[in-house]
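[audit] Reproducing an earlier prediction to check determinism. Same input, same settings, fresh worker. If the tokens differ from the archived copy the diff job will pick it up downstream; this log only records the rerun itself.
[audit] input (266 residues):
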Amino acid sequence: MIIGLQAATAGLEAEQVSMNAIADDIANDNTPGFKAVFASAVSTQPVSGPGLASPTVQLAAMPAGVGPATQVYYGGGAAAIASYRDWGQGGLTVTKQPWDLAIEGNGLFRVRLTGGQNAYTRAGNFSLDGGGTLVDAFGHEVLSTNGTPITVSVSKGPTAVSPDGTVTQGGTKLAQIGLANFRSLQGLQPGPDGEWLASAASGPALAGTAGSAGFGTIIPGALETSNTSMSVAMASLIEANSAFQMDAKAVMAANSMWSSANQIKA
């Protein structure tokens, strides 16, 4: 009975992780550049049944359907082991805002955090700060292909951004917006404001320019929307919630049986 209680409790924890991931996807449905998350689970290591010294007993040697109960072993429940992020392209929404930029294809914008650390994002809702420097929604500097901030003098007239990320003003090139890619996007670590940080698992940033090999193009006056599918998220939430409720009932049943056994023993 205690094994059943442990397995059901493990299932509750795994389903809670799944529901947390789904809730995050739903909450960020309107977040530019957001990438949906899928939590996965695995059956945990089997545990020994009554009188069984090891879960590795070879049952294959026994005739089908024959064998003492002491050779039965049980799964240990389920455990959430990983979260897979969907890095697929989100939809494009035209905003006509001059510094709203969307990447169509591979790549991430390069930004510099307040402490000087480089970070990466798909959210292109940029603007100019008081000094004319191009920054993201949190005030982090957007970097050029040279790894330097991009500064615009508003008094010198309108600016334009081309599909390869070149920023021009009055026909003069000011800078080129830099992009980056990684060997493993799944290895990126979350940053403080929704950006992404390189890690040993992701490998170092591979710098490049929009439109070059391996990189998408930049669409000015548009934003990439979240790639969360609300229909999939809601269906997954209902499924996870149903499994959570069944695990909860299994916990209550195991607890009731354990309580009855204790009363009989007493």
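[audit] rerun output stored. Observation attached for the diff report: The first helix runs from residue 2 to 27.
[audit] end
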